[in-house]
């Protein structure tokens, strides 16, 4: 009898140990970022910010006593590779959610994968087609290009400029921006008098800018991500083009100023508030989060926290809230993401719903301009 009791106690002890070990297992979150390649100015700060906030969550005790484990893969900005790595995260790493990808093209390629697997994904990309129409398992933190276009057009209307030229990159981000620039123009009394494109790797856009100079445009809007917009800024300066130059939020970081050099002076663009966090009024709901993020990023990486790193910070924090409220199952996370209301993050104040998986309004953007090699608010 004593042997039976001892054996039973041993079994109970083993089961308890196994149960405790299972309870303490980390919660795996996948991440797909373009850490290398042409889009590394997006992916590197996203990777850094995601790991930073995961480390801080774990240092504070994790989520309900469980640590987070971030499994990061570098897509290199390659859509085919992004699909392969998304499958790896789901089938091999058994993640419960995915943060990223960094680019619209990568994200659109990965969407069928996560939808089929029922794994929630929070993209760090801006293209409106990512969340319109709504996909059940796909959310995003980057502000929609719809809102960015509206912010530029509002400013042009305020300045009574009605004729514009647009120059957009021939990739998914540029195509989405071009579509919005054209579809919203009449609403603001804008006439597009020149419409041209450039390739993501084109080293010179003088030909396009020369055509634009011969048009009746009162302003030029360039839509793309580095390095193309910086090339356009330098080419415009070389040509002596006097048109006011607007860029998209795709270059909303100090990297653009570094690449464009003196040619960046005076350029305007819509941006998340993080670039000018210290200039915001005390009443701004985001200011506390923004200043904390900027300070933490500077301390960890000796660099300014930017718009793009903020997308990943928001994504991880949104997942944290969803897991706290709904558990660690993919469907529990998905349902709680969709129920998120009033989360004041880096990119804006997020309120998702069954009809809106982007979650932001145009108030997420401010208009900034380059002054003396730094960002300033446009009043």
UniProtKB/TrEMBL annotation:
Residues 1-23 form the signal peptide. Gene3D superfamilies: 3.40.50.2300. GO terms for biological process: amino acid transport. Keywords: Amino-acid transport, Signal, Transport. The keyword Transport applies. Residues 26-371 form the Leucine-binding protein domain. It holds the Pfam family Peripla_BP_6. Belongs to the leucine-binding protein family. This is Branched-chain amino acid ABC transporter substrate-binding protein. It comes from Geomonas silvestris.
């Amino acid at each position: 009898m004593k042997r039976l009791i001892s054996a039973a106690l041993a079994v109970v002890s083993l089961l308890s140990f196994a149960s405790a070990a299972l309870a303490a297992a980390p919660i795996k979150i996948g991440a797909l970022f373009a850490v290398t390649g042409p889009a590394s100015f997006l992916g590197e700060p996203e990777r850094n910010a995601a790991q930073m906030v995961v480390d801080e969550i774990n240092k504070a005790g994790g989520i309900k006593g469980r640590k987070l484990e971030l499994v990061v893969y570098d897509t290199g900005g390659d859509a085919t590779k992004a699909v392969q790595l998304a499958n790896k995260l789901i089938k091999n790493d058994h993640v419960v959610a995915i943060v990223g990808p960094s680019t619209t093209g990568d994200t659109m390629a990965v969407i069928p994968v996560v939808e089929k697997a029922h794994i929630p994904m929070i993209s760090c990309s801006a293209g409106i087609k990512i969340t319109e129409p709504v996909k059940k398992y796909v959310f995003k933190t980057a502000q929609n290009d719809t809102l960015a276009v509206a912010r530029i057009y509002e400013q042009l209307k305020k300045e009574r400029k009605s004729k514009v030229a647009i120059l957009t990159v021939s990739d998914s981000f540029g195509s989405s921006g071009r579509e919005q620039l054209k579809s919203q123009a009449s609403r603001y009394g804008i006439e597009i008098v020149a419409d041209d494109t450039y390739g993501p790797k084109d080293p010179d856009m003088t030909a396009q800018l020369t055509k634009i100079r011969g048009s009746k445009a009162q302003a030029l809007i360039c839509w793309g991500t580095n390095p193309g917009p910086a090339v356009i800024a330098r080419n415009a300066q070389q040509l002596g083009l006097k048109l006011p130059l607007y860029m998209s939020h795709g270059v909303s970081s100090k990297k653009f100023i570094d690449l464009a050099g003196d040619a960046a002076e005076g350029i305007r663009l819509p941006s998340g508030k993080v670039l000018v966090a210290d200039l915001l009024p005390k009443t701004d709901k985001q200011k506390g989060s923004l200043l904390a993020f900027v300070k933490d990023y500077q301390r960890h990486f000796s660099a300014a926290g930017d718009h793009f790193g903020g997308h990943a910070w928001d994504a991880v924090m949104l997942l944290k809230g969803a897991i706290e409220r709904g558990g660690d199952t993919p469907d529990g996370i998905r349902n709680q993401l969709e129920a998120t209301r009033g989360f004041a993050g880096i990119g804006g104040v997020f309120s998702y719903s069954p009809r809106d998986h982007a979650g932001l309004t145009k108030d997420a953007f401010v208009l900034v301009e380059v002054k003396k090699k730094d960002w300033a608010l446009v009043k």
